[in-house]
């Protein structure tokens, strides 16, 4: 048990420290790196409580894909140094909005966690029983049977988001030469090369 | 407390006995790679140091160790130094779950294949960090290329893994191997095996998909500013990753540590030897492809990943699922 708590405190201290660093570090790149560290340590915490599937999915989706995109954006925009930090220099205008959002999130968490802790029948569905079956197996048992509707709805929401993003950024450019792979592959010497007898002192007109 | 220390000691001992062979085999595999490359091009390849040139890589490693590590003045020093360490660590950490035989595995975890997939999707960080921290144009372009490439090919690898998992019904690597006792998945899922192989070429930045380090366009890509031991660590990590992809391929499709057929002279050969020979077979294919195929153009690479491999593996997934469902061959749930 003591080893378990040592590991727990190790990961949670790293998680809290890195999430603090995400919002306080001045270089945005460092923020993203600390965010990655945060994701990884939270994934380790998930694995420690026996939710190994969630932990792995957190690693694959958030660290392997989402954080890579974050890193891309931050590196491409070249916002290396944050000029206005909320405790140094000029006052930022983001503080009121941020405060409202975070207070709302805190309230929501309080309501949900409080209600779940102190009221027996708050949750409509029965929670999964801890048993010999592995965590992944249990998820699989309910995800495609009891919760298929929610699962599909989530998928459709994601699909809509993807289509929306493509639609917003798509623009048809005129005057751009496009390569047709079919034409490139189906070229043969007979229709690409031509042998011409050139008369002396006359030259050849090449049409291009 | 003493008990814990004892367990810790045993684990460290096991880890050392896993890591040392991997590092040695990475050195040997580099030699093999260069040797095959040479043979295809009618050269001799490295043949001077030691018997058949076997110690060439060790000599190279020694050379790298004694070279000076140059850190560019405008580089972000912490990230610059971290990048090769991340690459190397991730390449080695993934080996913890690879089963060499039924019980010769460091960690037989329930979600082994997900762990492998997660670690290989983290591999992109070493490259991005190295490319960005160098603070120079070529490394940055190389890093962006490779990140885009690795993220896109991961998607199709993920779907191929789902294909196999549908037939197995478990995420445990040992279960995946045992499920192939009757028939290796390379036969029913042959198109998936081909796509997996090509995607793993792209995932490990091997030719013909080595665009991140295309010397004609980008000098050496994300490794341009690296020298000495740090370059060697990138290099070791890359080859350890290649071996890992070969191991993954042999577990998913070639029956892992299972013998070719369960008949007398074949099944007395120990399981690790089967596993190693399958990894070597896949690696020989990697090496041959490096020697005989010209480099892809970048837009062709992305097109291949997103417009051909992804839809094709999705269609095949639907086909596999329908086949298993229709013929009632879905893996039985044993609770």
Strand-helix topology:
The complex is a heterodimer of chains A (208) and B (335).
Chain A lengths: L1 H23 L3 H21 L3 H26 L17 H24 L16 H9 L4 H22 L11 H5 L3 H4 L16
Helix pairs in contact in A: 1-2, 2-3
Chain B lengths: L1 H39 L15 H11 L10 H17 L18 H11 L1 H10 L3 H32 L4 H6 L11 H14 L11 H4 L9 H25 L11 H4 L3 H22 L5 H29 L9
Helix pairs in contact in B: 1-10, 1-12, 2-10, 3-5, 3-10, 5-6, 6-8, 6-13, 8-10, 10-12
Brief summary of the model shown:
Chain A is mostly helical and 208 residues long.
**Helical amount of chain A:** 55-70%
CATH superfamily grouping of the domain at 1-82 in chain A = NADH-ubiquinone/plastoquinone oxidoreductase chain 6, subunit NuoJ
**Chain-averaged pLDDT of chain A:** 80
Mean pLDDT of chain B: 85
Write down the domain tally of chain B. 1
State the name of the first-level CATH class of the domain at 1-82 in chain A.
Mainly Alpha
- What share of residues of chain B is helical? 55-70%
Oligomer, anyone? heterodimer
Ranges of chain A where pLDDT stays below 50 over 5 or more residues in a row are none
Order of helices and strands of chain A: HHHHHHHH
Task: Supply Rg of chain A.
Answer: 28 Å
CATH topology of the domain at 1-82 in chain A: Four Helix Bundle (Hemerythrin (Met), subunit A)
Biggest interface, residues from each chain:
A-B, 27 and 26 residues
Biggest β-sheet description of chain B: none
The ordered H/E elements of chain B are: HHHHHHHHHHHHH
Beta-strand residue percentage of chain B: under 5%
């Amino acid at each position: 048990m003591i080893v378990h708590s040592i590991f727990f405190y190790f990961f949670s201290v790293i998680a809290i420290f890195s999430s603090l660093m995400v919002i306080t570090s001045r270089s945005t790149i460092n923020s993203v790196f600390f965010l990655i560290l945060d994701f990884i340590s939270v994934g380790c915490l998930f694995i420690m409580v026996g939710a190994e599937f969630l932990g792995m999915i957190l690693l694959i989706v958030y660290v392997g894909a989402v954080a890579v995109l974050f890193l891309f954006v931050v590196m491409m925009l070249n916002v290396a140094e944050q000029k206005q930090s909320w405790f140094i220099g000029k006052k930022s205008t983001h503080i009121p909005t941020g405060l409202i959002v975070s207070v709302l999130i805190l309230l929501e968490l309080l309501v949900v966690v409080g209600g779940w802790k102190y009221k027996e029948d708050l949750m409509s569905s029965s929670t999964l029983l801890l048993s010999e079956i592995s965590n992944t197996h249990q998820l699989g048992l309910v995800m495609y049977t009891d919760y298929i509707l929610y699962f599909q709805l989530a998928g459709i929401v994601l699909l809509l988001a993807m289509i929306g993003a493509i639609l917003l950024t798509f623009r048809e450019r005129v005057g751009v030469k496009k390569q047709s792979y079919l034409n490139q592959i189906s070229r043969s010497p007979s229709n690409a090369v031509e042998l011409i007898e050139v008369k002396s002192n006359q030259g050849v007109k090449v049409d291009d | 407390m003493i008990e814990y220390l004892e367990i810790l000691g045993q684990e460290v001992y096991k880890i050392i006995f896993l890591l040392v062979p991997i590092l040695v085999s990475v050195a040997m595999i580099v030699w093999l790679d260069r040797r095959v490359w040479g043979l295809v091009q009618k050269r001799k390849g490295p043949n001077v140091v030691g018997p058949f040139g076997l110690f060439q890589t060790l000599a190279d490693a020694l050379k790298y160790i004694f070279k000076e590590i140059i850190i560019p003045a405008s580089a972000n020093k912490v990230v610059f130094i971290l990048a090769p360490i991340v690459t190397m660590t991730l390449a080695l950490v993934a080996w913890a779950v690879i089963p060499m035989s039924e019980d010769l595995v460091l960690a037989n975890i329930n979600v082994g294949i997900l762990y492998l997939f997660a670690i290989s999707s983290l591999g992109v960080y070493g490259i991005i960090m190295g490319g960005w921290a160098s603070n120079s144009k070529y490394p940055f372009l190389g890093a962006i290329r490779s990140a885009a490439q690795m993220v896109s090919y991961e998607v199709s690898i993920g779907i191929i893994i789902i294909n196999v998992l549908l037939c197995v019904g478990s995420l445990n690597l040992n279960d995946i191997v045992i499920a192939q006792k009757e028939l290796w998945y390379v036969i029913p899922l042959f198109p998936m095996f081909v796509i997996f192989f090509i995607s793993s070429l792209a995932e490990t930045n091997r030719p013909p998909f080595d665009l991140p380090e295309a010397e004609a366009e980008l000098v050496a890509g994300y490794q341009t500013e690296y020298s000495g031991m740090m370059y060697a660590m990138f290099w070791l990590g890359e080859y350890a990753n290649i071996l890992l992809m070969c191991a993954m391929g042999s577990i998913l499709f070639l029956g892992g540590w299972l013998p070719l057929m369960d008949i007398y002279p074949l099944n007395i050969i120990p399981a690790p030897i089967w596993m190693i020979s399958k990894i070597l077979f896949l690696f020989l294919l990697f090496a041959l492809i490096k020697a005989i195929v010209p480099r892809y153009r970048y837009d062709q690479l992305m097109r291949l990943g997103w417009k051909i491999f992804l839809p094709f593996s999705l269609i095949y997934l639907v086909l596999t699922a329908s086949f298993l469902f229709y013929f009632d061959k879905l893996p039985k749930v044993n609770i």
